Amino acid sequence: MELTDKLEFDHDDRRDIYDYVERHGSVEPDRARRSLDMEPRAFGHHVAILKRNGVLVEKDAELRIAYEDDAEAEFESDGVEGRIRQAREEDLTGLVGVIRQAIGDGAYVDAETVADIVDHEEVLLRHNELESRVFFVATVDNEVVGWVSLNANETEKLDHTAELTVGVLEEYRGHGIGSGLLDRGVEWAAESGIEKLYNSIPATNDDAIDFLSGRGWETEAVRESHYRIDGDYVDEVMMARRV
User: Fold this and answer.
1) Tens digits of per-residue pLDDT, 23-59?
2) Whose CA, among 44, 57, 169, 174, lies 20 to 30 Å from 137?
C-alpha cells in the first residue's frame, strides 16, 4: 500500500482493526482483538483479508500498516559511513531524541512541533483520512543521526502539499547526510503525487535557510514577529519548493 493511497474498506470491522493499528503504530494481534472485543475467528478472518489487500502486515509478531520502503541508500564521507532508510516504529525514541538535540533551543519550531506530536502519540507512521506521515532516517552504526519527515494533508484542497522537516546531529554535519535525506524526502513526495513541499523556519536560523535556499527552495513570505523565542520576537521565514 502506498502511504498516499485513499483508504477504502468493505467491512466496518476491517476499518476498526486498521484504525486501531494505525493509532498504535505496532500492536500484538491478540491485544488488538481483545481491545476491539472481536471473536478470534472473525478477527483472524478480517486480518487475513487486510493482509491480502496489502493494508496490514505482521512483522515481529505485531500488526503494522503495510507501508514498507525497503530501499536503502549508503553514504560515506571522510570516514563516516551509514545508511538512509525509512524509519521504523522501533526508531521512535531515538528519533525524537535526535530531533530535539539537533534543532537547538527555538531554532527550528516546525521540527520541534513534529517531535512533540510524535512523542505524545508514540507513533511514527500515520495514514488516515486526515493525514499521512512518514520519516526517513540516516543511521551510523545503526544509530539514528538525522531525519527527514513529511506530513501530507489528505483533505482534497491540500492533498497536493506536504510539510517537510529535515535535520542532522551537529557532529555529523558536513558529510552530505542532510542533502541525502532531503533528496530522499523530495523523491518520496514525487512518487506519492505531492506537488509542493513547504517548511517554516525562524529568521534567526541562518544555517537552515541557507541550506534549503541552496537546494532549490524559495522564500514565499515572511511573517514579522511570528515567534516568541526566549522573550524575543522573531520573524518566520516561509519556504517552499515545487516537486
Assistant:
1) 998 999 999 999 999 999 999 999 999 999 888 999 8
2) 57
Task: Calculate ∠ Cα 49-155-13, nearest 5°.
Answer: 25
Q: What range does the domain containing 16 cover? A: 12-65
Domain match, 151 and 238 both: yes
In angstroms, the Cα distances linking 57 to 28, 91, 199, 203, 243 are 12, 18, 32, 43, 30
The reply to whether 163 and 186 lie within a common domain is yes
* CA–CA gap between residue 132 and residue 162 (Å, rounded): 9
The pLDDT tens digits of the residues spanning 64-87 come to 988 766 678 999 999 999 999 999
| In a shared domain, residues 220 and 108 | yes
pTM of the model: 0.86
In a shared domain, residues 129 and 39: no
Q: What spatial distance separates the first Cα and last Cα of the chain, rounded to whole Å?
A: 22
Q: Tell me: do 55 and 92 sit in the same domain.
A: no
Q: For residue 195, give the nearest of 159, 238, 233 by alpha carbon.
A: 159
Q: Please write the tens of the pLDDT for every residue from 85-130.
A: 999 888 999 999 999 999 877 789 899 999 999 999 999 988 888 8
241 secondary structure, DSSP code: E
The C-alpha atoms of residue 23 and residue 189 are separated, in whole angstroms, by: 23
Pair 241, 197: CB distance under 8 Å:
yes
Report if residue 5 sits inside a domain.
no
